[in-house]
Amino acid sequence: MTTFTLGFAPTRRFVFSKEDAFKYKELIKDTMHGFGLDIKIVDLEGINEEGLLYDRSEEKEIIERFRFEQVDALFFPHCNFGTEDLVAKIAKALGKPVLIWGPRDEAPLENGMRLRDTQCGIFATGKVLRRFNVPFSYITNSAVDSKVFERGFKNFIGAANVVKQFTDMRILQVSTRPSDFWSVICNEGELLEKFGIQIHPITLDELKKKTLSVEKEGGADLKEAVEYIKNSLDWTAVEESDVRRIASLKVAMKQYAAETGSAAIAIQCWSTLQDIIGIMPCLANAILTDEQIPVTCETDIHGAITSLMVQAATLNTVPTFFADITIRHPENPNGELLFHCGNFPVSLSTEDKPELRKHFLFEDHSPGTHEGEIKGGAMTIARFDGDHGEYSIFLGKAKGIEGPYSRGSYVWVEVNDWPLWEEKLVKGPYIHHSTGIHADVIPVIYEACQYIPGLTPDPVDPTEKEIQAWLRGSDINQ
């Protein structure tokens, strides 16, 4: 992941207190640094003595600085009323996600004068941004040290990171979809034309050659992958040569991703691969997904897009898992089994050493599946999908529950209203594939969608109104 860079342009207006504006600029900067986010902040220091946005003659210099620093988003805190036309012009020129907010104003002074009027300025800036056709986010007018500001700021940074990675997305496609999987058909041309998403295809034969070359040549990357498998899994059910072949496949896929500039991989995982190199790719997929290169099964391009989005929503700090939505819980009416053959990240396993086994479904029973239950807890289930030129992303909350043993990688989850979920998934445009992540990224994805024309958020739980109320901080005493 490349560093996320935020353009910080605190703004003031000449008729209000410039001393208080400067004071709040410093408070806001210190507060942002205290949030613990791994981001780079580019400010206006050195452009003028105050480091504030107010002088129209500095518009070009500020735009040039932000362009040079390649900012990924812009934050315009109104330290007093602010200069709304400058905010809009700079935002329009940069074309990045925009956040506006103002620290809550104090009561008027004893003489009746007011020092800042930040809320009033936000109203003005919102209107001018609309005139310039600039989409923007805002945080409810609130104190610098409030939970409302912290929540809104972190949510915006996550959303802007989703936008950054979505608009610069390239996916490595390893072979065609399996012939039986019509459900994963995607429109490559439309993804490029509509969203700028690029697909880089390679053949299984190319992957085979690189895998065997890595295996033959050895090297530090292969040694590291072999040691990881041996140290992290119970591999007694397979041969040492199988471990080396699986590790070689993992290294080969990672090399292809790096060479092609691909952030995710969608692979035809059965059954030609087993015929040509004798292994299943499930564990290799799992290890790469743990390394923030999500790999999706059955050449599911839309699944890879989903995985990159939800991973980006956590600033790439939490791994995803790619699952089939399979069967209902035998006792819980809102319970469901999330499963795949053996591709969930090893780091999510409930066991210290999950099992590396041979595949339990296909007749060749090739080695390479990493099996076992993964941890429960709160999670988000998501699915980017589309047809007939319309795209949306399904979003829902789930929590892990107890359930019967299953082969493969799996976790049982409970949702708020399974019949409602099932109806949404069946009637589409979704399928049985989903991406899970142990984080609540729904408000982040929801906010990101306003910066991605042609993509509609489709939340099932929470509802859209509940997400909007959460973003406003309606549940917090302000």
What would you note in describing this structure?
By secondary structure, the protein is α/β, with parallel strands linked by helices. The protein has 15 helices and 18 strands. It has helices at 18-34, 59-68, 84-94, 118-131, 147-166, 188-195, 204-217, 220-232, 240-260, 272-277, 282-290, 301-313, 418-427, 442-449, 464-472; strands at residues 4-8, 39-42, 73-77, 98-101, 137-138, 170-174, 198-202, 264-267, 295-296, 320-328, 335-340, 355-358, 367-373, 378-387, 390-401, 409-414, 433-437, 455-461. Strands 10-11-16-15-14-17 form a 6-stranded antiparallel beta barrel. The protein is elongated. It starts with a strand and ends in a 6-residue tail after the last helix. The mean pLDDT is 96.
